[in-house]
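User: I'm putting together a teaching handout on how multi-component assemblies are represented. Below are the sequence lines for each component of a complex, exactly as they appear in our records. Could you produce the 3D structure of the whole assembly as structure tokens, so the students can see both representations side by side? Please keep the chain order the same as the input.
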Amino acid sequence: MDNSHFFVTGDPMIYGADVSIILVSLAIIIYLTYFKKWGWLWREWITTVDHKKIGIMYLLSSLLMLFRGGVDAVLMRIQLAVPNSHFLASEHYNEIFTTHGTIMILFMAMPFMFALFNMVVPLQIGARDVAYPFLNAVSFWLFFLGAMLLNISFVIGGSPNAGWLSYAPLSENDFSPGPGQNFWIWGIQISGIGSLMTGINFVVTILKMRTPTMRLRDMPLFSWSVLASSIAILGVFPIFTATLAMLTIDRLLGGHFFTMTGGGNPMMWVNLIWMWGHPEVYIVVLPAFGVFSEIVATFSKKRIFGYASMVFSMIAISIVSYYTWVHHFFTMGAGANVNIVFAICTMIIAIPTGVKVFNWLFTMYRGRIRITQPMLWFMAFVPCFLVGGATGVMLAAAPADYQYHNSYFLIAHFHQVLIGGVVFGYLAGMYYWFPKIFGIKLNERLGKWAFWTWQIGFYVCFMPQYALGFMGMTRRMYTYNSTMGWDMGWAPLNMISTVGAFLMGIGFIFQVWQILYSIKHGERDVTGDAWDGRTLEWSIPSPPPVYNFAILPVVKGRDAWWYQKQEMQKGSYQKEAVKYEPIHMPNNSGIPFLMAVCFFIAGFGFTFEWWWMGIAGLIGVFITLFARSFQYNTDHFISVEEIERTENALRNHGSIHRTAN
Amino acid sequence: MNKWIQTAKLSLLAFLGTALLSGCDRSKFIVLDPRGPVGKQEYNLIILSVILCAIIIIPVIGIFTYIVLKYRDKPNNKAPYQPEWDDNKFLEIIWWGIPIIIVAILGVFTAKTTMNLTKPPVKDVDPIVVQVTSLDWKWMFTYPDKKIATVNYAEIPAGVPVQFILTSDAPMNSFWVPQLGGQEYTMPGMSMGLWLQADKVGEYFGSGANFTGKGFAHMQFRVKAVKQEEFNKWAKQVQKDSPVLTKAGYKKLSKPSLEKELSFSSYPIGLFEDIVNKNGGIYYDHMNHMGDHTTMSDMNMKK
Ligand code: HEM
Ligand SMILES: [Cu+2]
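Assistant: Of course. Below is the structure of the complete assembly, with chains in the same order as your input.
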């Protein structure tokens, strides 16, 4: 391979990025050194196995990646705002849409989702940590270093440019030589392993770590959605890993899985990648449904309507989503019968999805609706997702899809469900649980500004794209009107769409501002129960102590905290005497981080086909595994005195009288 | 703050208005303006699916608005409040039932249309075959009956079913002429069939729809439907006036480049079959990959 262009050169934007990367890194290093924070960083964050801290790190990284992906998006929209634009060259544009898609799904949506898993699930089910805290840290660091590996391709070696799902044979050596495509493979391969482990972790956590009195049928719906999503992860991430491994073999070892000429078959790539890819979109949306179920019940002051049906529909979605992958390539000519079966399976998915919407509506019906920030996002989600689901059903009608496929209609569909469903859902979740994790309420005024710019920006950006699809505009074009005198009239709508993208960008800036402002000046939540919540996470202080629950809570049914509050208000309520016991907690460990660094080194080496480096990295991975298996000092007990001290301090702080059970 | 929201809402409306105005010209919405039986069937399915979806989402958005307005948490709100009411079998049956019915209806029509599109749109006219090869970054059309080849444009007789046989000598692309009908992939080593037909004389926009790298955005082509006599005349003209596409010429053509519209009076015998085979077609029985089960040997016989 030609490695003569190790550093990407020749583009002023990239030099700009080089300079800013160096400046930011220097600033961070100087800050940490000057304030003597290295030790703190290592002890409190890098080695942590606390699910809350890991959740915070996921949240931070995903917001960072949302920024990077958002900049990509804005660059693309600038390029398309006018016809025959020379803002970006073809190859640069191709790199940008490839990294945009990859980053938004794998390094924004997934970690944002894992942030919510980590910040909420153990608190909601009355657990003191996840089932495998060490593995949890490994997952995070694999994700983080995988994401960094893909991101450095921007300045070192060159970015991938074959699309976020890198269809073979375009992604094979013949058409995509050089390290870019390898960066894509290794970046998502490494973080994908982390995702699989998180899936395992949360299935076990939810099944085994609930407080003993919580039956599955009393479990909050967010935790149910995490279970459904994690089970889907277990089903499909192995496919993802294997598929990427096959492409690696093709590219690095001269294999022929996906090249026709060696007897392989690129159609197999398309099938395999969507066997993962379709369930993946449901993996990310299910937890958003879960978030909304919590929010709508809390802010309607009412029990969730049709709990059983809600659970059933989530499980149904996660199962049926295994059987719809072909709808992403109806036009590959698998034959009429195959298309019909998959078209109908796809439409079937819309049924449980629709049922959930009805159940949310009837949760609000005869309730008392408080329009808070999380609720605003829910109210924006309902119409947006209905339309997105409807265009999904339109796409599912296979012969009609022949006309939408690969067009801007498709682009509009999936942004509507991914932004309207996933992003709105996770943001709602962030607004909802922020006071729990940080003890700070996010500023309302800035939040409203962010909300409205996002909303208006969204519709202005994506509604025109449906129309552009009907006008025959295909996705992934870096320019239009430039050949053969075809003027299809795409220019005005493209301009409008670009304006919308800028508005969403402004919305994001408002949110960053809102978070920073609130951390400094925001209203502190001292009650632990910022929203008059219903589920267990609101029964403990905000932010919760390391061990979450001093005493494992006793659950008598659904919405345990809500009913306990009602009892507490009765005059007859007797507070039980609490008797603490020592709490068993895992020790911090630097091994997860070191292991991920070794993975990074391996990935980087294989990306440039520097075998010595790749193999050295893998050996490093084995050494860390080995070291771990000889670590005997992996846990400790928190003494009763310490619990008492912590609890008293927290309690004197809080105003509402909280019981430990 | 509220005034700002008002302004924002107004500007949103203004934007949507502009969008609609710029879209008033229906002819620009080529997908919704089909000019052949295949495109028309797909159009009908699109309209049906829009209506079926509207039946669900319009009432739901209505109910949603009503509920949000009625059950606000205000001290003087007299609407009923039933915090424990969380189950109603009858309602649940309704909202499982209605979507099921809608999906069933749409499913039946989807199945029907899917089957229809595998057959030639009209039975009583003899179809013609046009072979399509997507290259980096241009389209080559070969006419096995006329033995002529074109690049980046194709002429077809109006009113005659055309079986496009698709392959690729480059990464996978997708052949799309919206006004005639939906797209299908062109894949190296495969040959696939796509029935299309133009009812009327006219020029139709075509493009590659599946990303293939650097020059992808320039892969537009023109499909010109003309009367049968004119089509024959055009073919004769090309046979007479245009240069020959030699093996070497094809080799050069298939290298990554952009091209203008080109015509060739002849091409190497078996060019299309060779392209399919050299890209791995030898490993496959083409039976399954031809839309209507035309086999490679059928195609050869036709010539
Ligand atoms: C109501 C249920 C839904 C249905 C019936 C549906 C249907 C479809 C169909 C048929 C396609 C393929 C279209 C084509 O390639 O021509 C598609 C694409 C897509 N959908 Fe959906 N969808 C639904 C919901 C969702 C949700 C909830 C998400 C994500 C949260 C999602 C994300 C996507 C993405 C990312 C793509 C395209 C990816 C790509 O080609 O790069 N969809 N959908
Ligand atoms: Cu899908």
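A couple of points students might notice: Residues 288-528 of chain A form a domain with the Cytochrome C Oxidase; Chain A fold (CATH 1.20.210.10). The pocket of protoporphyrin IX containing FE (ligand 1) is lined by residues A 281, 284-285, 327-328, 346, 349-350, 353, 389, 392-393, 395-396, 401, 404-405, 410, 413-414, 417-418, 421-422 (CB under 6 Å).
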